Amino acid sequence: MAALRISHFAPTAIVYFLLLSSSYPIVALNITSLLSTYPDLSDFANLLTATAVDGDLIHRSSLTLLAVPNSFLRSSDLTHRSSASSLADVIRYHVLLQYLSWPDIRQIPAAGKLITTLYQTTGRATSNFGSVNITRNPANGAVSVHSPASYSPSNATILSLIKTLPYNVSIFTVNSLLVPYGFDLMASESRPPLGLNITKTLIDGHNFNVAASMLMASGVVEEFEADEAGAGITMFIPTDDAFADLPTTERLQSLPADKKAVVLKFHVLHSYYTLGSLESIVNPVQPTLATEEMGAESFTLNISRVNGSVAIDSGIVQASVTQTVFDQNPVAIFGVSKVLLPREIFGNNPISTTRPSPNNEATGSAQPPDISLSPENSPGSYTPPSGMSSPPGFHEELRSEAQINRAQRFILACAMSCIGLYVVV
Fold this sequence. Notes:
By secondary structure, this protein is an alpha+beta fold. Helices cover 33% and strands 18% of the residues. It folds into 2 domains: 31-185, FAS1 domain; 191-346, FAS1 domain (Roll), CATH 2.30.180.10. It contains 16 helices and 14 strands. Keywords: Cell membrane, Glycoprotein, GPI-anchor, Lipoprotein, Membrane, Signal.
């Protein structure tokens, strides 16, 4: 009987073909196609295409995408008032250059994990601010994504995993658009500086004479005007009546000059917010200019919507926004009904207001406030908005992908067995 002869080339070619065919979908990754079956992510998918970021991902073989559902994306006006180049970098900030599965997310330590984004690779990010810090709250399992900057105002919470191609691509939904720290969304070569005279604006408002006098006397107004560039500022200025209503026990005017300056900085956010943005703010706890000077997690304001108006809680008093004094990007000035007294100075156990020395500052980034997830938005489950059906074939698709992977491994094992038999023969 004639011996069956097999070419040395045949088994090698089979193995090479199998390896090549199994990796091919990742070589030509179409991220918008993966998102197309999820109607609630249509706006984010359109942004990927409009900014051409989807083209940057075609040949990426390991990434995690943080997609923002329509309901959260439409509540932010950032996408409408940003330049095209700035918006593209914001979208790149949502592309993590590392594959993360749900087990990977659950194993993230409470101290956090720093992960590089596509924005970091552009060279336009300052320091490591093109990366994100992912932290997990061990108490409730909530996973937050935010800037490495300890007082960054932008963060988001991971809601659910909606798509995974094991070891290559994961797509999670988050509840807010992420903005890199210090990023100027309105950056444009043709945009002139505002150069607003804050003191004059307050005096012209006819109800902020006390605040204007304090700002001039303390010298901090020049610092505020210098901060108009970049991310801008939002100021909460107490009315003259608010100063008149201060209890006699709270002797603001008798404070040392350095503490008085801290109190004034406590009334300013280092980001520009319109009144609408404040009404729909995602992260209620906001750092102030005093936070940047005195240290993370101190001198923060809690901003919320109460009885149809914006409420600002200092930890001691709750004030409300009574009027818009000035609003033109990058400066917003709002009149408030009470003087915002920081608990760090006026509380029962005030802390030292001496700025920590560089040698004593804690390392790492501060964790954002915990955001408890409702059962329907708990990790691992994705619930579309009311009236919208679940993405078609989601669970079946994941099972079929797993079956395909097992089939590929089986075929590869068979091919290797053929090689082994051939060598024996």
